[in-house]
Amino acid sequence: MKRSILLLIFLWSASIGVACGQMLDGGIVDSEAKPLSNVVIALYSSTDTLKQKFYTVTDSAGLFSFEKIPADEYVLCASSLGYKPYSANVLVGKQAVHLGMITMEMEWKELSTVMVTANYIQHKGEKTIYRIPTSVANRVRSAFELMRVVPELRINPSSQSIEFANGASFLILINDIPSTEAELKAIPTQDVKKIEVYDTPPARYMAYDCVINVTTFDRTQGYAVGFSADQSICPSSGYTNGFAYAVYNKGQKSVAIQYSYTRRRFTELIGKESYQFTLPSGSVDRQQDLQGTKDMHMHLPALYYIYNNPQKQILQVVIKPNFSHSYNSYMSDISLAKEAKLKGNACDRTSMIYPSVDVFQRYYFASNKYLSNNLVFTNYRVWQAYKNSEWDAMSGVRLLSNDMTQSNVKYSTILQTDFTHILDKNVYSLGMRYAGSLLNTSIKDLQSTNNYHSTQHSIDLYGDYVQQLDSWTFVGRIGLGYLYSKAYEAELSNLLPQTDLSVYYQINPHHKLVFKTAYSYNEPSLSLRTKNTRSLIQGLRYSGNPNLKGTTNATIGIHYTMSYNNFYCSLSPILTQQWSPIFSNYILNREEMLQRPENAKGQTITALRYNLRYSFFAKELLTFTINGSLSHHSLTPHSMKRITYFGTPINYQIDLNLGRFSAFYQGSLFREYMSGLTINAGDVTSNIGLRYRIKNYTFSLNGIWFLTEPEQWSRTNPTSLVQMQSKTIIQDQRTVITLGMSIDLSSGNSNMKARSLNNNDNDSGAF
């Protein structure tokens, strides 16, 4: 009897629990983990459509809840304008159900030829954010090719490198971690959340004009492998690009290996050089016609280890045992004054090995406070052999013979650390950077052997501060560097101050106005200066002239940007003034030291940079981009009249996108630019490319230097005392038609950069 009573009581209490129902709650966020408010949430039974339906909307924090829901199998639906509908099966039993945060993706909706979606270009203070439309992500294979989304960027088909239209220097970050272009090629497009371009980089990256930060979605488990290759149709030209990668992720750890191979071989290089200058013994007039070949191989393997715990610390270790080899040979016909004719030949071989170890670590004291440390060690070894000879064309008598070898061994270390604190409306950071290098050079020719020893030590203190006030953003940076260098028995020590201020005004979501001012002082130095150690190629370069005074630089600029989904426009008038003597770099190469001071009092540069992009029809079916500058250079020499130069370089690109098929055509006009007293032009000429993508395979056909000749040339300003001009043309460009194929396979959730940094999108100044 008692058991029956207890059983009845239990069944009665259970029925009461079912009748009262349980609670179901959750939240809605967008692809950037930002809460979405006013999202309609519907809940209806999947077993009986006649049962009552439940509705609610999310609050300002993106949260929703249902109370007293009867136990049943339900379908939960979430909908909001501009986002893809979300639905999922939910089982409600005797316990409360907590769904957590649900992510809704943006959606393109077509109404005839009108696209309705959130603007994929967003301005936020000192950075511009580019979302990745589905129509763009589906037609490219990697984050590297996604750089075409940014109007200021272009991919140079001949060098397969990213370039800013205005020639600005930049650093690539992946989830705020310093990276390279090769790493972008290993990130599938579907893993890219957004691309951020900082036109005022944080102070730790003060050496760069811009910073590109690629943010990816979270990936916790799986692997990815891929391979791509481009080969010229004519094997004699030797135009080859190869890239392979493999990535494995497990939880918070990732391991990746990459290998990149590049070859350039041209058999019909045609060059013309002429020199005209006056010496006390008389005038010199030398003209030279060159014909030769060029062959270059570059091998870039890399090994990555990443530990990513956004709540505590991030660690990345990169090992790169890079090496390359090049060979050049020339035959020349030389004409001198008084109709003297000479013949000549020359060849040089260069082998380089430059392994590096790069360790990046970030420790979080809290979600808005962290300490970043970076250690880079590079060992750079170069062997060069150079031979040349000249003889009389008529008699065959040898007039000149030279056989020289040079070896360079350089050790460099970079240690950088800084602290960043992110607050609600402002950000500040303080840091220190040490760079030291040791260079040993040995030059041997037919007569003698000379050994040189050079050292450099520099310490930089820097800081920046970002303040947001409604539509205004103020970014201030300051740096103070101390440089000690010893080269060729000369010692120099300098203080190098630098400061700048940028003010951003967000007119509305589509319009932004920026005011910039900068000041720096640079003293000449006999110290070793190289490109960033993460670059593929490093140069042994010396800058300055110890007999000249320091140079003061001041820049004032205004930048206006207007952006819509199908239209982008930016205008930047800039005024740069340099006081004190201007000088050029001199390069330690085959000669012991070759210096060329410009011997000028100062120069003024006025420029108007512009960038226009317009997309026709839906889903960017046809896009036209044009960018360039109108620049005026005014140089004031000591002993000559003022030198002026007016330049109008223009770059253009047309993109056609038809689903799986895409094509582009790009080129340039009036591509001259002035540097000091020299006017130069690179090999940026017209190129055409075709792409077809199906599932994990991409096929390409490229015409490098399409309908144009690849050429590089430079000449001195017509008013210069010394007249020099040179021009090199690749005659066999007709063979540089390349076929390419790439394969990308993955399983699970995989990406080399496993997790993005957990900064809740408060990254308004420093990383």
From TrEMBL:
<protein>
    <recommendedName>
        <fullName>Outer membrane protein beta-barrel domain-containing protein</fullName>
    </recommendedName>
</protein>
<keyword id="KW-0732">Signal</keyword>
<feature type="signal peptide">
    <location>
        <begin position="1"/>
        <end position="21"/>
    </location>
</feature>
<dbReference type="Pfam" id="PF13620">
    <property type="entry name" value="CarboxypepD_reg"/>
</dbReference>
<dbReference type="InterPro" id="IPR008969">
    <property type="entry name" value="CarboxyPept-like_regulatory"/>
</dbReference>
